[in-house]
């Protein structure tokens, strides 16, 4: 099941701001950093199960209103930062395409239980040996 989602340009909001960090005059004068916003909650492009999975993620980049905010300032040029932000958006949406596999509850085997209890017993005797003061 190879599912592809193409997000149209109208759903993306880009804002160009000045980058933080070192760089001298270039950083102080040129707005090369990109702030990309994508409204997951209101997007007509996303299928409902994908939207639910993306919104349920505990990601600090997703606001309470369901808007994904990506800041890209890794590169010196605006174009490269813009490309980086879009790649990260694609990776984020891609992560919501696959439904997580349901966990199958299992029980420890009898041998595993015995090993655990033996280890506990062994540890207990080691600790008991430390507390007994039989100096006489």
Automatic annotation (TrEMBL):
GO biological process, one term: rescue of stalled ribosome
SUPFAM superfamilies given in the database record: Peptidyl-tRNA hydrolase domain-like
Start-end of Basic and acidic residues biased regions: 115-136
Domain Prokaryotic-type class I peptide chain release factors per the UniProt entry, residue ranges: 18-34
A Pfam family recorded for this sequence: RF-1
Chain segments carrying region Disordered: 101-136
Highest taxon in the source lineage: Bacteria
Entry's transmembrane regions: none
Gene Ontology molecular function, alphabetical: peptidyl-tRNA hydrolase activity; ribosome binding; translation release factor activity
Full protein name: Ribosome-associated protein
